[in-house]
Amino acid sequence: MIVMFVFSGRLPAQDGPSRPDDKWRVEYAANYNVQFGRGRLDRPYLGILRICGRGSFSCLVQLPDTARPAPSGNEVYIGADTVMQVWKALETDRLVFLDLSLSGQTTPYSDTLHPMAWRLLPERRPIAGLDCHRAETRFRGRNYVAWYAPSIPLPHGPWKLGGLPGLIVEAHDEEMNLVFRMRSMVAEAPAAGPPPPMPSDGIGDYTAYQRYWQGTFRRLRRSLAAQSEAGCLSCRTQTKMTFHTWESIPE
After folding, report:
1. Mind listing the pLDDT tens digit for each residue in 52-101?
2. Pairwise CA distance, residues 53 & 151, whole Å
3. What is the largest CA-CA distance in the chain?
4. Is 142 within the bounds of a domain?
5. CB–CB of 172/142 below 8 Å?
6. Domain for residue 141, yes or no?
């Protein structure tokens, strides 16, 4: 598939990073398989990346037909709308993402900015007139492929991905469960409001994020086991609840 890009205004200078007042809005056609690893149920999303000089904000927006599916059996989904709001500040080497709990509460957590170790490969291909280079990495239990454009020397990308010598134009995991394809890049109009500010209060670290979900998993298992035992007077039961997280969380 050929993706057409719309560029408005001037492109960033090729001899260095963008100026602090350069503002860009990048949109991606995104696809997320909510049954990753177990089946196929693809949902389309709009990926938005707003760049302001050395900082960025990235999020996924559900399209009208992307209602969360009902889990089948004893399954709990932690889907694309949980950890896909991400702020990056290159000057201070910070990344903050917003997590959505099962109760609907949002909590900000910090993470390492661009910790993925990219392998820059010689493979190249044109995408909508851009000379794009291939890179690969393994990040949080998954293998990713990215195509970046050195002619746009912005080290940004959708979600937590980034740190390459060029803007990420396409990215996906090796099973194509999460796919980003850039469809437009425009200079934001002066009247465009700023992106949501990076949270500054109540921020936990990534270890706290893992601990929260590990504790949630344990409580859900105990609750289900207790309900099964209470409803069975003369039989033995073995309750198994399966959790599926996009980033690998040790249980």
Report:
1. 989 999 999 888 765 555 555 555 544 444 458 999 999 999 999 999 88
2. 16
3. 75
4. no
5. no
6. no
Residue found under tokens 């249980």: 251
Q: Which of 133, 141, 86 is nearest to 114 (CA)?
A: 86
pTM of the model: 0.82
Task: Name the one residue in this structure whose structure tokens are 């970046």.
Answer: 148
Is residue 27 within 8 Å of residue 183, measured between CB atoms? yes
Number of domains in the chain: 1
CA distance 85 to 116: 18
55 within 8 A of 88, measured Cβ to Cβ: yes
Residue 159, domain member (yes or no): yes
Q: Six-digit token pair at 230? A: 């209470």
Single-letter amino acid code for the residue at 93: D
- Which residues constitute the domain of residue 240? 7-116+153-245
Query: Could you tell me what percentage of the chain is helix, strand and coil, using 3-state DSSP and rounding each to the nearest 5?
Result: 10, 40, 50
